[in-house]
Amino acid sequence: MSDALTHPLVRAYLASVDREAAVLSDDRRRDLLADLREHIESVLPQGADDAAVQQALDQLGTPREIAAAAIAEEPGVTPLQPQSSARTTLTLGMMVLAAPFFEVLGIGLVVAVLAAVRIWRSTAWTRRDKHLGILCALSPLLVIPAAAALFVLAGGLGPEELFGSFLIAMVIPLAGAIRLGRSAARLRPQAA
Amino acid sequence: MSQLRKGVLEYCVLALLSDRPRYGVELLEALADTPVMATSQGTLYPLLSRLRRSGLADTYLVESASGPSRKYYELTDQGRQALAEFSGHWPGFRDAVDRFLVSGAES
Q: Where are the bilayer-spanning segments (chain A) (predicted)?
């Protein structure tokens, strides 16, 4: 491997192509990145300076442009579309806040399922993000009983412990919401 | 213009491969000699990848003494056939567009 590929500008560039092409299958994305790596290695001499690296990357095109060309070659793959931040916030808020209400008259379950449906129907996330988001949204179904069972084993389940179980159940949805929030924010034009 | 370029670019690539196999950077250099066909370099690779997957071109790696191994593209029989078909249609197509443009300008 030549040092061109370890240059910080090149690494950032390739990481950005990888992100922009996230809707493509793993195989296709790997091929694309391998082609770009080979290109960069063949046009940049060993020890090229920052200006030369930047020039080579500029000639290659923006990561978004290249990803769009690769996505356009794939029938059936539609590019991700940004959605408004209000919409994202509502979806992810529902996902996180469902947990404390989970076993109160089933409200939490309904909210979590609605959040899962909103995630599934959104155009802003890749399939992988969607699967992750839906698992996180529905995770309280398992986490609350599990946490409550642990409290019972540890000596008793009072109102405080039950409340504790709900709080614990928020952790996974919160982690998922942070990740999905970041991918949605990256799609918005001002983040380009 | 970009749609038109996109449509004909793959045949220009097939034509460049018809005399000998070439690797990516070599193809880009040949295209850059003709500014109207020049695109952002990186967008050529998805096109090359599709030519390979649809059986119009094959690839093989050649170790290079000075740098990374190079992926060469060569035309398959199917690629030659697609190029021949396009070459057959193109003059009629080009003349027809010219006729419309000229008669449009005169009327």
A: 92-120, 132-156, 162-180
